[in-house]
Hints:
- The chain has 250 residues and is α/β, with parallel strands linked by helices.
- It folds into two domains: 16-65, no CATH class; 78-249, Uracil-DNA glycosylase-like domain (Uracil-DNA Glycosylase, subunit E, 3-Layer(aba) Sandwich), CATH 3.40.470.10.
- The chain has helices spanning 53-60, 95-100, 107-119, 123-126, 152-169, 179-186, 192-195, 215-220, 224-246, and strands at 23-26, 30-33, 79-80, 86-90, 127-131, 138-141, 144-147, 173-177, 208-212.
- Helix 3 packs across helix 9 (224-246).
- The longest helix is centred in the C-terminal third of the chain and has 23 residues, at 224-246.
- The two termini are 28 Å apart.
- Mean pLDDT is 88; it is low at 5-16.
- Iron/sulfur cluster is lined by residues 43, 60, 63-66, 68-69, 75, 133-135, 154, 157-158.
Amino acid sequence: MPRTTRTATTRRTSHRGNEGSLFKPQGDDEVVPLQASKNTGSARDFFPQRISLPQLRAAAKYCRGCDLYCNATQTVFGEGAARAPVMFVGEQPGDQEDRAGKPFVGPSGQLLDAVLEEVGIDRKHDVFVTNAVKHFKFEPRGKRRVHSKPSAREVAACRPWLEAEIDVVKPKMIVCLGATAAQSLLGSAFRVTKHRGEVIEDQPWAPWMLATYHPSALLRMPDEAMKERARAEFRDDMKKVARQIGQLSR
Ligand code: SF4
């Protein structure tokens, strides 16, 4: 597994706030937009002046870093323990997450919760969950909104939010759920199919990283035998995560 360098695709955002922010602070956790803006090409343009999870979450509500804000209901920022040892990064919010404004509350989140409980990872105290892209991208099909994969440009535009979440939470381990999250942090050449379940150590984001299936992929698999095998592999990967973060309390 080649080491990811801080190139244009993996450069981390400065931990400082955005002095040229399009927002002004309003109390501890609120910001108000100074000017309306069309898609600027980067979430970085919408950073608050002070960097904290509440300030970032509040600023992200007004993000126009790409066009995905146009059709989605709201920004779905990461949630969880502010100093969680493990951060799970998915692709983007789904239909239910978009409506609720919270990540991993739909069927994928329920599957993730069940497996975390099974392997002894406490989602409330040990976990922060987020996505590579903070708005739901979909295609309308009748009354349904069908998930649509975000483009590389949209993932890159949104990555400053993810980088800021990582900088603030400082997880010991980052688990990338699916190819979009893995490629956002580990480079476009990274293949989950090749490196799934490996504990990766030489990356700038966290001491340990691991990439595995996105729970939604497990739910969608049409073949029962394949689904059973993939779920077992996913459980094994989560056991590995539990063992890694278990080392921290020894
Ligand atoms: S997807 Fe990300 S970059 Fe695009 S508008 Fe939403 S929060 Fe901003």
